[in-house]
Amino acid sequence: MTGVVAPAEGWELLEGAVKGAAKKYSQDRCAARRLADGRAVVLAVADGHGSAPHFRSDLGARWAVDAFLACAGEFARAAVDHDDPDRPDDDSHWWETLADLRAEARRLPRLVTHRWLQRATLHDANAPAHGRPWRGTEGPDLTAYGTTLVGAVLTRRLLVCWQLGDGDVVVLDAAGTPYTPLYTGPDLGDETDSLCAPEAWHRARCHWQPLTSEGPSGLLLSTDGLSKSFTDHQGFLDFAAGVHGRAHELGMPAVQNRLPEWLAHAAQFSGDDTTLVGAFEATGPAGPRCDEPPRT
Amino acid sequence: MSDTFDLPGGSMASRPVHFIWLLDCSGSMGVNGKIAELNFAIREAVPEMQSAARSNPGATLLVRAVSFASGASWHIDEPTPVDQFTWEDLHTYGGTDMGAAFRLAAGALQTPPMPQRALPPVLALVSDGQPTDDWRAGLRAVDDTPWGRRAVRVALAIGDDADKSMLKEFLANPELEPLQAKNPRQLAAAIRWMSTAVKAASTPKADGAGPVQAPPPVALDKGEGEDPIW
C-alpha cells in the first residue's frame, strides 16, 4: 500500500492580487492552474522589483510566471504520468522514476531562467532599455526586467517548491498546521535575489517532498508584500492557517470574495504589491478538472 | 465595504525607517553664517520630509540627529516620528570629529537596538571641512553593522573647503557624488532633497546591485543667481 491519501474532490484554487498603496500599477504577476485532468496543480507568483533601475520589471514578472508555467507544467505532467492511480498496490514504477523527477526538479530553475533570459533579451533587442542596442560579449544588462519567482507543483504523491528571491511558501499539513519549508529567517531591508542576476539559477532554493502518507491540505504562495505587513512571522503563519480554516468553514468562494479586501489591508502596511495564490483540498463539489489555457 | 474584523492572522504595522542626520558643528561652520543657514534649512525641510513620509505609507519615518565638533553627541537621541519632529538649533563648538559621529551612529545601527524588521536606514552627512579624527575607523564601524552596510547614504559639502573625496568614500558608491552648496539657497535645496531620501530607503532592489541609490539629485541651480559665499 502506498498510504497516499489524495484529496477526495481534487484541489480548489485561490488567487488574489492588489496594487501597493501609492503605486501607479502592480509589478506582481501570478498564476494558479490545474493540469493533467486535475491531478496536478501548478502555482506561481513573481514580484517585479519595481524601482527605477527595474522599470520593466512588470514584464519580467509576467515572463517569469510564463516560463515557470511552461517548465513546471511539463514536470507536473511527467509526475502524474508515472503515478497510476488505477494501480495503487504497484508503486514500484513510481519509486523508480522518482530519482529522474528529482533530477528534473534540480534542473528546472536553470530551464526557467534560460526561458526568461531569452524572452527578456529579445525584448531588449527590439526596444533597448538603455536607449541603444547592446553590443558586447557578456550579454545584455537585464536589470530593467528584474523579478523574483516562487513556484510549486503539487500532485497526490509529490510536492516540489522553488524560490528565487523573496516571497513565501506556506504548506498546511493534513491537520492544517502551517510550515514554511523555504523560509530562511527575516530579511534585512528589501534586498532580494533576482532573475536578472548572472547565473541566477544558482540562487534558487528547492523543497522536495515525496508524499508517503497524508499529503498537505493546503499550499499558499505569496509575494513579500504580504508577509512584510505582519509585525512578526507567527502573525503571517496565523494568517495562512486562518485562510485555510475559513476555506473549510465558509467555502472557497467566500474566501475568494474576501481575499482582495484582506490583501488590500495588508498592502497598506507593507506599501508593496501583494499577491497570493493557493490550493486547498476541495471540501465541496469538485472544480473544473480539465486543462486550462495559460493565462497570467 | 465590509469591515476587516474577519481578517485572519496577527497584527500588522508599517516598517520603520531610521533617518540620522550627521551634522558638522565645527568652528568653521560659524563663518559666514553657515550654521545659522543649516539650522534654517533643516527646519524649513521638515514639511518636505513629512510629505515624503506620507507618500510612502509602508514606512514609518523616525528622525534623530548627531552633531560633531570636538567629539560627537546626540543632538536628538530619541527616534522621533517625523510628524512630531521639531528642530532645535545647533551651535558650533570646536573641531571636526566626524569619526566620533560615525561611531555613535554605528552603535545605533546595531541589531538591537535597531529592529530586524525595518527598512534600510538613511545616513545624511553634512560637513564643511576636513575631519580631525580617525574618520576611517568610524566609517568601518558603520560598515561593520548589517544596517550600516545597507543604509541609504547622502552627503553634502558646504563650501570649497569640505573634504569631497572623504564624503565620496562615505557614499560607498563610485557612481554617486556628494552634493555641494556654496550659498544659502543651494544649501536649502540640498537639505530639502536629502530630507526625502526615505523614498530610496523604501525602494526594493536586487541583491548585489550595490548600495541603495538616493533619488536623482535635484538641480541646485536655484542658487545660481547668487554668488558663492562659502
From TrEMBL, chain A:
Residues 24-263 form the PPM-type phosphatase domain. Gene3D superfamilies: PPM-type phosphatase domain. SUPFAM superfamilies: PP2C-like. Pfam families: PP2C_2. InterPro entries: PPM-type-like_dom_sf, PPM-type_phosphatase-like_dom. This is Protein phosphatase 2C domain-containing protein. The lineage of its organism: Bacteria, Bacillati, Actinomycetota, Actinomycetes, Kitasatosporales.
